[in-house]
Amino acid sequence: SQQGEEDPQALSIQEGENATMNCSYKTSINNLQWYRQNSGRGLVHLILIRSNEREKHSGRLRVTLDTSKKSSSLLITASRAADTASYFCATDVNRNKLVFGAGTILRVKS
Amino acid sequence: ETGVTQTPRHLVMGMTNKKSLKCEQHLGHNAMYWYKQSAKKPLELMFVYNFKEQTENNSVPSRFSPECPNSSHLFLHLHTLQPEDSALYLCASKLRGAETQYFGPGTRLLVL
């Protein structure tokens, strides 16, 4: 069974609104990472949060991690049309590999 | 531009063909990965190489054959594929022990 599962599967918002995506996982982790993928392209790393951290910020991104609930959320504030992409959480179970979820498709309408 | 390149970007092949996908990284990394991305499914890890040695084969059918001649190059040799193998194949690399992977743009494969 997959480690990370994102929710919702798809999200459509207006430019300027905030977008929140959630990720749940099953096993203990070293860290949790969020990646973005523009249509048909490779993934780009956005932000990493370690298992002993609860919240992290990077520009318009805010990530939270609740290890007791085995869940994380990614908040994108003041969204832009250029934020339209798929967003994936990935859990680092060992240093050698990541396990990805199925992703959330975000559409930001201008 | 992430420093990881993949060629070709698009490939159409018949089930009896033999083709190869190439990945090259210019980042000085020593771990390389092949992933398969099918529509509406999570990214599937296929193979992991560390210092040119294969350290993980995620139960991938033998019609996919990886090769890692050095830490900068990774190949995926394809033969007698099935239509369900059509997908986006992504290569990634990182420094062994580091946390973040860097992805190439992928090869879009269509098997007819």
Could you give the topology of this structure?
The complex is a heterodimer of chains A (about 110) and B (about 110).
Chain A: E1 5-7, E2 10-14, E3 19-24, E4 31-37, E5 43-50, E6 55-58, E7 61-66, E8 71-76, E9 85-94, E10 97-100, E11 104-109
Parallel strand pairs in A: 2-11
Antiparallel strand pairs in A: 1-3, 3-8, 4-5, 4-9, 6-7, 7-8, 9-10, 9-11
Chain B: E1 4-7, E2 10-13, E3 18-25, E4 31-37, E5 44-50, E6 53-57, E7 64-70, E8 73-79, E9 87-94, E10 102-103, E11 107-111
Describe this structure in words.
The complex is a heterodimer of chains A (110) and B (112). In chain A, the strands form 2 sheets. In chain A, strands 2, 4, 5, 9, 10 and 11 form a 6-stranded mixed sheet that branches. A 5-stranded antiparallel sheet of chain A has the order 1-3-8-7-6, with no helix packed on it. Helices cover 0% and strands 59% of the residues of chain A. The model of chain A has no long low-confidence stretch (mean pLDDT 93). By secondary structure, chain A is an all-beta fold. Chain A has no helices and 11 strands. Chain B is mostly beta strands. Chain B contains no helices and 11 strands. Chain B has strands spanning 4-7, 10-13, 18-25, 31-37, 44-50, 53-57, 64-70, 73-79, 87-94, 102-103, 107-111. Chain B is globular and about 40 Å long. The termini of chain B are far apart. The model of chain B has no long low-confidence stretch (mean pLDDT 94). The interface between A and B is medium-sized, with 24 and 29 residues.
